[in-house]
Amino acid sequence: MPDAASAARRAATLDIWTGPVEPRPVTGGITNTNFLVEDGGRRCFVRVGDDIPVHGVMRFNELAASRAAAEIGVSPPVVHAEPGILVLDFIEGQTLEEADLRDPEMLQRVVPLLRRCHEGMARHMSAPALMFWVFHICRHYARLLEDGKSRHRRILPDLMARTDALEATIGPIDLVFGHNDLLPANFIDDGERLWLIDWDYAGFNSPLFDLGGLSSNSQFSQEQSDEMLRLYYDREPDDALRGKLAAMKVASLLRETMWSMVSEIYSEVDFDFGAYTAENMTRLEEAWTALRT
């Protein structure tokens, strides 16, 4: 990832601007360097970032997903793209937090947006497109952590045993094109509608991974998770569906924990990944214990 100063220079010198611009940093991301640029009355979001192979982030896929999401009306239009650069219309609105997603009225808005994504994205994706299979990713992370002599190497056998057990619990899946990174901050409410942004990890997957990520990242109660399933599947969830969701919630937390472990040794971003690993490990252990009881 380029440093902030060079990223700002790159954002400022794009040939799409009608005159001189002054990119303003947009905080909150820990994978990319982002800016707000005002040009001739238009406000644009500029993302500067190259491929991140250790995390499977490939910008051609992010661009294709961003364009598909815009076509089905869940994300802002792509204004411009070139290697290492993605420019979108800037969305004025409130970035959601965990508590927002636990609100029943907000959940009734979020789940239909997610279903529209799952039902529509694949029809608008340009080939090739990636698959995001969380269990493959966890095994990939384990290899990186071993090769990088991570301080977490001693627990890798246990994490891989959990990976195998969770994958067996999930079993055969339905396949949709998902977002795969449903952190609350990736939803924006502009006062009239919701937007879903940041397609770095987009790819074909089980719908349960997005549902599990939504539930785990927002710390849903069992009742809130059940309501999410009712809204998504338009039926009362049975024990089998609840069990698969619970397993995918654990898988989501396992992947986020291992993502942070890998970032501890490979990322150059100024962020306390050690603390983030500890936070996610606590959530992972709680979810793993609940799954087995």
From TrEMBL:
Keyword Hydrolase among record annotations: no
Pfam families: Choline_kinase
Signal sequence, start to end: none
NADP keyword on record: no
Domain of life of the source: Bacteria
BP GO annotations: phosphatidylethanolamine biosynthetic process
Cited InterPro entries: Kinase-like_dom_sf
GO terms for MF: ethanolamine kinase activity
Coiled coil: none
GO cellular component: cytoplasm
Keywords (A to Z) from UniProt: Kinase, Transferase
PANTHER family given in the database record: CHOLINE/ETHANOALAMINE KINASE, ETHANOLAMINE KINASE
The protein, known as: Thiamine kinase-like enzyme
